[in-house]
Amino acid sequence: MLGAYGWAFEKPIRKLYYNMTITSVSVIVAVGVGGIEALGLLAGQFQLKGAFWDGVGKINGNFGTLGYLIIVLFAVSWVVSIVIYKWRRLDDLDANG
Fold first, then answer.
1. Rounded CA gap, 66 and 40, in Å?
2. Rounded to whole angstroms, how far apart are CA atoms 6 and 10?
3. Contact status, residue 81 vs residue 21, Cβ threshold 8 Å
4. Which of 19, 39, 40, 94 might form a disulfide with 60, Cβ 3.0–4.6 angstroms?
């Protein structure tokens, strides 16, 4: 992460791009984890059955694996973000106007 911070803070456009990427992925993860937890609570309270609810129960019972998936999501999103950043040549933009 130190390398990513150093890279991001060299130029203002990088800082903005880095913050947008990390914030977007963080929001997606937070909504996903909160949604899974909420669905698990609903399933438990109302004794909901079926393939979907069984899947929700399995995910709720194994948050360790979900944590690994979140780490992979952050790593993949950062790599994709760098590729897009380089492909669109955002370093060539002038942040001052």
1. 14
2. 7
3. yes
4. 40
45-73 average pLDDT score:
94
At 1 the pLDDT is 61
- Nearest CA-CA partner of 73 in 31, 24, 15, 29: 29
Q: Is the entire prediction scored with pTM above 0.90?
A: no
Structure tokens at 8: 């991001």
Task: Give the pair of three-digit tokens for residue 2.
Answer: 């130190």
Secondary structure of the chain as H, E, C letters? CHHHHHHHCCCHHHHHHHHHHHHHHHHHHHHHHHHHHHHHHHHHHHCCCCHHHHHHHHHHCCHHHHHHHHHHHHHHHHHHHHHHHHHCCHHHCCCCC
Whether residue 9 has pLDDT greater than 80: no
